[in-house]
Amino acid sequence: MSDYNFEQKESFIVIGLGTELKSDYTDYAGIIKEKTDFWQQAGQDGRLAHLKSIASNDYIFAVNEAVNNKMMHYAGVMSDQTAPEEARVIQFPAGEYLVVKGEDQTADALNNKLTGIAFGQALPESTEFAYVGGPNTTVEMGNRNGLVYGEMWIPVVKK
């Protein structure tokens, strides 16, 4: 199951711990491997558990953002607590967002599926909206019927 629409969102902040992605932006296999390795390491070394402990809800954010001409990827949460020293506070603007909903076997599979639908189908087909950069995120919202479900949120502007 997956579907998408465009909707208005209030601004929000994600506290994220990140890594620089070194693969070329067209090397999808390389990017996926780097992201998977990062999430495994963050889970093993306790960084993800710490983020979850300061979160204001159960959502886990996988954020992509260009920072200083570097392609960055973050594991993040919404929180009103003080960010860990090594964390980045990522501001998402108020405005229109492409929202892609779906579910899959794992969080990684969900992230890849929603990214594919967003950038391979929804944005190219849109006659009203365009993505012009800024942070975008996949939001893991929970589990149901044995599947991970969530959404991808991409800020867009009117064409």
Descriptive notes:
- It contains three helices and ten strands, in the order ββααββββαββββ.
- The protein has 159 residues and is of the alpha+beta class.
- It has an eight-stranded antiparallel sheet. Strands 7-10 form a two-stranded antiparallel ribbon.
- Strand 8 (136-144) and strand 9 (147-155) form a beta hairpin.
- It is globular, with a radius of gyration of 15 Å.
How would you summarize the topology of this molecule?
Elements: E1 2-9, E2 12-21, H1 28-44, H2 47-54, E3 60-67, E4 70-77, E5 88-92, E6 95-104, H3 107-125, E7 129-130, E8 136-144, E9 147-155, E10 157-158
Antiparallel strand pairs: 1-6, 2-4, 2-5, 3-4, 3-8, 6-9, 7-10, 8-9
Keywords for this structure?
two-stranded antiparallel sheet, 28% helix, alpha+beta, globular, 8-stranded antiparallel beta sheet
Major β-sheet profile = 8 strands, antiparallel
**Number of helical elements:** 3
Sheet-strand content, in percent, reads 35-45%
Show unreliable segments.
Answer: none
Strand order in space, largest sheet: 1-6-9-8-3-4-2-5
Mean pLDDT score, rounded? 93
Instruction: Report helical residue fraction.
Output: 25-40%
What can be said about this structure in brief?
With 159 residues, the protein is an alpha+beta fold. Helix content is 28%, strand content 45%. The chain contains three helices and ten strands; from the N terminus they run ββααββββαββββ.
